[in-house]
Amino acid sequence: MSVDLSLYRLIMDASLIVQLVMVILVVASVLSWLAILVKARTIKLAHRAADDFEERFWSGVDLAHLYDGVRRKTDMSGMEHVFSSGFKEFLRVRQHPPHVVDATHRSMRVAIARESEDLERYLQFLATVGSTSPYIGLFGTVWGIMHAFLGLSGVQQATLAMVAPGIAEALIATALGLFAAIPAVIAYNRFATDVDRVIGRFENFSDEFVALLARQTAGRGAADARE
């Protein structure tokens, strides 16, 4: 008795539940790879934009001139958004020196929180795929094996050839679960570290910018006192 154990035949002969599990895992894998590509590009662009902005910021350019150029951009994001939020608040409260530093810092923290939400987009999806796919695949495997053995209930003498196709098709679900989960877990861990690194850059810039404004405010206050 010959048994066709080709991958295509095994998938087509699988039970409806196992086929449904396979479809779910394939879709999850495709979507996770799309999320990985989008996230990799987003983080790369965030680092590049931060490098470009920091180079301009520390080049000695007038901050008011830099702010005018940044706020005209329609695609402002990242460190530019953090700077713009802080400098806008600084201009609003600079007539009240005791509150300048705290108000500016608070505004920049809000901007950093919003940027963090954008950078962390899709990470939860990758974490979900990575943590649930093996169990979804395991469910398909258990169901397939159970279905294979139930098919032997009316057979007087069972042979390996009779149960091999059912067990093989069930194990495909486990393989697909791992195929979906492993890249998602690796990508999640990598991107979580990268996002923390980008956010850390935003926070360091915020602290440096607030310290710079504090020194300017203190110097202006001392000059006014001498006059």
Automatic annotation (TrEMBL):
Location of the protein in the cell: Cell inner membrane; Cell membrane
Transmembrane segments: 16-38, 122-146, 166-188
A Pfam match: MotA_ExbB
GO biological process assignments: bacteriocin transport; cell division; protein import
MotA/TolQ/ExbB proton channel domain span: 78-203
Main location as per UniProt: membrane
InterPro entries assigned: ExbB/TolQ_transport, MotA_ExbB_proton_chnl, Tol-Pal_TolQ
GO cellular component terms attached to this protein's record: plasma membrane
Membrane topology recorded in Swiss-Prot or TrEMBL: Multi-pass membrane protein
Keywords: Cell cycle, Cell division, Cell inner membrane, Cell membrane, Membrane, Transmembrane, Transmembrane helix
Oligomer and partners: The Tol-Pal system is composed of five core proteins: the inner membrane proteins TolA, TolQ and TolR, the periplasmic protein TolB and the outer membrane protein Pal. They form a network linking the inner and outer membranes and the peptidoglycan layer.
Summary of the function given for this chain in its UniProt record: Part of the Tol-Pal system, which plays a role in outer membrane invagination during cell division and is important for maintaining outer membrane integrity.
UniProt record similarity statement: Belongs to the ExbB/TolQ family.
Name of the molecule in the record: Tol-Pal system protein TolQ
Organism, scientific name: Thioalkalivibrio nitratireducens (strain DSM 14787 / UNIQEM 213 / ALEN2)
